[in-house]
């Protein structure tokens, strides 16, 4: 099992880790718009491992039309830290070092404390944001990570991505998020925030499991 969490004051929102709160949809962070969705993407351990590997190598972002740039691992050795169980309860920290992995192009896999830049277009609007990996989870039946905004985005907030291999052998992909508008347009028209989020969710699903995608 590997759990890694990074806490740093450079993120531009206060409720770090709130995407793992069980009551996110009922009580989102102040002035933010919550969202979540889950999709069954297959069954069996092989499907789980394949989807998890894709997730940790940035496939959800890259295959959804976003460019992953300027990926920088956290300074110093990575560590396992405070994380959350399925009920959202904090888990005590440990100090196990995390081995860094790389994809075929030499880009580091997702790691706690890592920063990166995402660029592209979402809902016909330019996307350009600096993000930090807040936490990473690799367990026997769950693989996932949390991304938080550092700056430059039209919204500020957090996304969590989880692949779960359930006891009934089904594999599910869950994305949760909360977005607080930054740009004037998004503050004036909150519906654009929801539209942006719906499109991102649909793109992530197509990226991780094309067979289960639906048109935007």
Features:
eight-stranded antiparallel β-sheet, 4 helices, 216 residues, alpha+beta, 19% helix, disordered N terminus, Alpha-D-Glucose-1,6-Bisphosphate, Chain A, domain 4, 37% strand, 10 strands, two-stranded antiparallel ribbon
Task: Give structural notes.
The protein is of the alpha+beta class. The protein has one domain: START domain (Alpha-D-Glucose-1,6-Bisphosphate, Chain A, domain 4), CATH 3.30.530. Helix content is 19%, strand content 37%. It has 4 helices and 10 strands; from the N terminus they run ββααββββββββαα. Residues 1-9, 78-82 and 92-96 have low confidence and may be disordered.
> What gross morphology would you assign?
globular
Q: Give the domain tally.
A: 1
Low confidence ranges? 1-9, 78-82, 92-96
In terms of DSSP E residues, the strand content is: 35-45%
Helix content: 10-25%
Short description:
This protein has 216 residues and is α+β, with helices and mostly antiparallel strands. The protein contains four helices and ten strands, in the order E-E-H-H-E-E-E-E-E-E-E-E-H-H.
List the helices and strands and how they pair.
Blueprint: E1 2-5, E2 33-43, H1 45-56, H2 59-62, E3 67-72, E4 83-84, E5 90-91, E6 115-122, E7 125-138, E8 142-151, E9 155-165, E10 170-181, H3 184-188, H4 190-208
Antiparallel strand pairs: 1-7, 2-10, 3-6, 4-5, 6-7, 7-8, 8-9, 9-10
